[in-house]
Write a structure and sequence with these properties.
By secondary structure, the chain is mainly alpha-helical. The protein contains two helices and no strands. The chain is flat and about 45 Å long.
Length: 61
């Protein structure tokens, strides 16, 4: 089996995508609502990832 090596950023994006898909599927009733909610959650995850990255960058000087 080939070894998969992901950077921290790639792993964060993959986690955000997978969690957004699951939240969209289990949280809403119609396909349109699921898609919108999943995309909104993914956007929120991206904001959190970049926001926390900047906070860590500022904290380390």
């Amino acid at each position: 089996m080939p070894k998969v090596t992901l950077t921290h950023f790639e792993a964060s994006l993959l986690m955000a995508f997978l969690i957004s898909v699951v939240l969209g599927v289990v949280s809403r009733r119609t396909d349109e609502e699921r898609l919108r909610y999943g995309l909104r959650c993914f956007g929120y995850f991206l904001l959190a990832i970049f926001g926390l990255a900047w906070l860590m960058r500022l904290g380390h000087g």
